[in-house]
Amino acid sequence: MTTAPDPTLPDQLRFDAAGLVCAIAQQHDTGEVLMVAWMNRDAVAETLATGQVCYWSRSRQALWRKGESSGQTQRLVAMRMDCDGDALLLLVEQTGVACHTGRRSCFYREARDGAWTEIAAPDVSPDVLYHRH
Amino acid sequence: MTTAPDPTLPDQLRFDAAGLVCAIAQQHDTGEVLMVAWMNRDAVAETLATGQVCYWSRSRQALWRKGESSGQTQRLVAMRMDCDGDALLLLVEQTGVACHTGRRSCFYREARDGAWTEIAAPDVSPDVLYHRH
Asked: Is some CB atom of chain B closer than 8 A to the CB atom of A35?
């Protein structure tokens, strides 16, 4: 993580009408695409400042510090911007699993023979992740 | 590409108010994230039916058969859906470059030392890609 927390970096992004850009999280060493979520300006700035990935939750309309409930945090290794500035690629070190279903990646269903087919099982129960008893 | 062109597969996606889902293209063997774009129902169905990636162009409001102008097509190797059904991961075989700037990936700028820094040069001139003289 070589990025100094410069507050002007987010200014070069093209946020949409809702103030958001799409953000892809990819495990930095294996290349596995873990998830896609959204960031507003504050989420980008906080992520650059702390080195811990923070998204914007559209459902909760609040900053979403990844792993704050589950402990499954993402440490930022690098942040990249796409050619038209409305998407980010986050290279991360994922602690545990990225998906709320307990799977490593959210992309666990694949179109095969005309059906969406599960190609990955949970590594951990969501009940354990979210301390439900 | 083991997917039969079943027209009901897109029905399980959660399209947004504009009828779109976000789609990430990743080179299937190297893991490189190439680009992010959007698909509507017809683009998903066409991609599954033909095995050639087709997006929806928000700027042109039309189907965008990737490579139709530049020849830089994407052959679909696999299509995956995320946990909440509003994003797709396309594993592709990219012909040439994915980015309209002539770079392999659209994510060619990285936040380094407080600035967005180019980390990849064009492989080919856009003038060559788009036959401009």
From this structure: yes
Q: Do A26 and A90 touch, CB atoms closer than 8 A? A: yes
Please tell me the pTM assigned to this model: 0.94
Evaluate whether the domain defined by B9-100 bears CATH number 3.10.20.810. yes
The CATH architecture that domain A9-129 belongs to is Roll (3.10)
Q: Tokens 């690629």 belong to which residue?
A: A89
Cβ separation A31–B30 shorter than 8 A: yes
Burial call A100-120: b when 16+ CB within 10 Å, e when fewer = bbbbbbbbbbbbbeeebeeeb
Check CB contact under 8 Å for B115 and A6.
Answer: yes
Please count the residue pairs, one from chain A and one from chain B, whose beta carbons lie less than 8 angstroms apart. Answer: 116
Q: Where in chain B are the domains?
A: 9-100
> What is the nearest CA distance from B42 to chain A, expressed in angstroms?
16
Instruction: Output phi, psi for B98, to 5 deg.
Output: -90, -30
Q: What's the pLDDT tens digit per position in A54-65?
A: 999 999 999 999
Contacts of A85 (CB under 8 A, 6+ apart): A12, A13, A14, A21
Please state the ipTM of this predicted complex.
Answer: 0.94
Residue A131 host element (H or E): none
Are residues B44 and B88 in contact, defined by beta-carbon separation less than 8 angstroms? yes
Q: What averages of pLDDT result for each successive group of 10 residues across chain B (133 residues)?
A: 68 95 98 98 96 96 95 97 97 97 97 95 92 76
Give the neighbor-by-neighbor strand order of the sheet with A87-94: A33-39, A21-27, A87-94, A74-81, B109-112, B115-118
CA distance A109 to chain B (A): 5
Cα angle for residues B38, A20, B115 (degrees, 5° grid): 105
| Candidates A12, A79, A116; nearest CB to B9 | A116
